[in-house]
Amino acid sequence: MAKAGISAVPTLGGPAAELFDLIVPSSLEQRRQRWFQLVAEHIRALEGKGIDLEALSTDEGFITVVIEASKAALGTHIEGKLQLLANCVESAALPENNDDFIAMRFLQYVEELSPEHFVVLTYLADPYRWYERNGIERPAITGPRRAALDNAELPVEGDVLELVLADLDQRGLANVGGLSGIVTENAVYGTLSTQRGVQLLKFVQLFPH
Prior knowledge:
Layout: H1 2-7, H2 13-48, H3 53-56, H4 60-74, H5 79-92, H6 100-112, H7 115-125, H8 127-133, E1 143-144, H9 146-150, H10 158-170, E2 182-183, H11 195-203
Helix pairs in contact: 2-5, 4-5, 4-6, 5-6, 7-8, 7-10
């Protein structure tokens, strides 16, 4: 359909359609193979956890998660996002995550957001552990929590960080307004993620960390 649409554009025509025919099928096949590899690895992990794979094959809720995650996987080239989608597939098969609505909602978050969002959310969920895990000295701060965030050496900064923070706050995954409040030294490194944010991190296997 896309090729036909390109062919119909007078200023593009045949050459553009041929370029589409040359590039897209190859790229899709590479993405499909990478996704199948990741899913296979996570299925093996489920088997190692004692999950009944035969029962999974008839679990319509799980099958829906796999189908929707596969659609999203073919639409991205970002390895970090593929890993998050594969983690969703594995988590959806676990007994503690047998709520189809929650599984699909969390998968939707992964589709909508980027790996950068999850990096920042991981920090906000436990700033103290972020500093500890990354070997960063924690400065003594009495004031806004934003100072601790700016000192945390996140691989997300500038305008991108501001957009990420706004997205997390809008979705109810973090209390970004708490960054500006004046707090004690002990509270500076306290959590700023919501319960939903922590649950999402657990579902994508990034918490506890």
